[in-house]
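Troubleshooting log. The previous run stalled partway through. Resubmitting the same two chains, unchanged.
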Amino acid sequence: MQQNSRPSLFLHKLRQGSLLYSGTMTFSKVTPPASSHLSVPPLLALAVRPLPLPPLQTVLSIVLLRICRSHPKIFDRLGEHARKRFGIEPTDLPFSFLLEPAPPRPRLSVVRDLPDDLDARISSSLAGLFGLVEGSLDGDALLFSRDLVVEGDVAAVLALRNAIDDAQLDPVAEIAGMFGPLAEPLKRVLQVARTVASVSDRSRKGI
Amino acid sequence: MELICPAGTPAALKTAIDAGADAIYCGFNDETNARNFPGLNFSRDELREAIALAHRRGVKILVAINTFPRAGAVSLWHRAVDDAVAAKADALILADVGLLEYAASRHPAQRLHVSVQAAAANADAIGFYTETFGARRVVLPRVLSVAEIAAIVREVTCETEVFVFGGLCVMAEGRCSLSSYATGQSPNMQGVCSPASHVAYEQENGRTKSRLGGFTINSFEIGEAAGYPTLCKGRFTTKYGTGYIFEDPVSLDAATLLTGLRDAGVTALKIEGRQRGRAYVEGVVRHFRQALNALDSGRPIDAGQLTPFTEGQATTVGAYRKTWR
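Second attempt completed without errors. Output:
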């Protein structure tokens, strides 16, 4: 592995039809991603496509508010970038997220297509994005392996990445915590899913 | 040998403690340190709390104030020195001779380390820092072979610290102006090489182009491993062809050289990467802690497992083994 050998560690390529930063804040179509064992299976992605987004929107809105309330230092680290609009695109799902963290009313919207007037766009597999949020994956390493694509305002993305990494978020606990008596069983299910993804990722990367 | 680990946030610092760091280096969230990136570093309160936590766990904190003070704004650097001392930092990592003089005269009991940014690459230069400012340790530039390090250790009276993992600078640290040329900002003055505010990634004809300050510095095929968007790791076309004319996108991994570095008399091993996330800190620190344990007990050192964390998904032993000579 020394002196410029380059193992095949690449998971995700850019998805056909997605929009990428082109330098003038307009976004252009790019090539499709390769399949990977970290991706959401295409059949599952197809199955969730017709599902209505409002229930997911409701859950994520509550989760975001809980996170912002319990981790106010996120906004210190975001600084001026809290007012930016971030498009977050899981490349293996048929929907995306629009994050507008500006206090006092931070918003996380689920959308079929991201708008054009974003400050920055972040694209990766769902597992990659999840790993970044919970801090189990390193953002620079994902960029080096091309499993993460960043476009637009790179400084804003860096501030967001560092703010989230320092917050030590536990998205599984945050989501499960909303479901009262169902929280513990749901947490176990989500933890199993996370462990499988993590083991798969570490095995794939040989670490 | 001590294991010196990076932390860009309080969470990364806790991670480094848990993973087995002997000491952790970090900096304030301003231009006084050479990793002045958005959302990174420590406020005064965070540093005080971090040092208290580390000391409870038996870990030392080294505060990097390793940029060169700007004329007319020196008080920012002086304040950083005073605040780090007040927070009970175990050592300050400094590069500028004026700042070393300030720290040595104002805080004579404070332990001082000479930053890699000072580019002290021979015994005479190091002797100047130890004799003039009482520096107790020098972080050696990444331009020396193991044999050269051994020769320096024999001649100097202070401790030596060397990098064993992470990003590499092909230029003499503290003297590189490539970032400044392209963006007006440099690690030496503003604490940031290739500032994110000047970086853009663009998609063009199926390739991803990285630009810095308006200059196109690289173009990657789909799936081709990448490095940081710095000029020194840019790919350029010359009359001899197209390629990496300064340096390949590759990270240092000196795990296989630990025996030689120990035998050379090195005091401390440093991991680069205050800009990296908790996952990197956990993975790399734990790996080198295990490597040092193996070294101490005479077991073989497990090397080459950290490639997924590296630039270009590739590693090198850099100047430690100068095969081009």
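Takeaways: The first strand of chain A starts at residue 19 and ends at 21. The helical segments of chain A are 42-48, 54-70, 73-78, 126-134, 139-144, 154-167, 171-176, 183-205.
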